[in-house]
Amino acid sequence: MLMQTVAPQDLRVLYRPIWAALSSRQSHLSQLAGRARALFANISQFAATDPDVPHDCSGLVTLAAVGKTIAFMQADRLPAVKGARFLDSLPGVQMIPSGPLSHLSEGQFERRGSTDMPAILSLIARSQPGPFKRRTLRMGPYFGVKVNGA
């Protein structure tokens, strides 16, 4: 099954998807400092703070070693963090299907793995979808979608 139905009350995890992942099934891929978590640098530069204490961002300075850039994906703004510099902000769109994607068949999806890394890195270089590193595949399964065999 490629798509899972989510109950409306569970959609709140999408306000801080990085925290939701790093404080649950992907916690072993991250470092914890105070009330903040960040993926290991060789996986991705995403980080997040605990939504229950959104103004306690002190751990971020520890996680962002000198010269390291960390990225956030969340609905609310981060407060100013002493010892850190804010570089940029980009708007994002969270797409949630309202029903099955009937125009896609499961046969179009192909699971990708470490042997596919040259093709994955080539696609990423062309499309620049965001932070992706050689060990990002450790975060979970990746799928390629083929249309007309390509």
The count of DSSP E runs of length 2 or more, i.e. the number of strands, is: 5
How much strand? 5-15%
Which residues sit in consecutive blocks of at least 5 with pLDDT less than 50?
none
Oligomeric state: single chain
Computed over alpha carbons, the radius of gyration is 17 Å
Number of helices: 3
Structural class: alpha+beta
Give the overall average pLDDT. 77
First-residue to last-residue Cα separation: 22 Å
Largest sheet: 3 strands, antiparallel
Question: Widest sheet: strand order?
Answer: 1-2-3
Task: Explain what this protein looks like in three dimensions.
The protein is of the alpha+beta class and 150 residues long. It has a domain at 106-145. It contains three helices and five strands, in the order H-E-E-E-H-E-H-E. The strands form two sheets. Strands 1-2-3 form a three-stranded antiparallel sheet. It has a two-stranded antiparallel sheet with strand order 4-5. The longest helix has 11 residues, at 117-127. The radius of gyration is 17 Å and the shape is globular.
Question: Which terms would index this structure?
Answer:
alpha+beta; 3-stranded antiparallel beta sheet; two-stranded antiparallel ribbon; 15% helix; globular
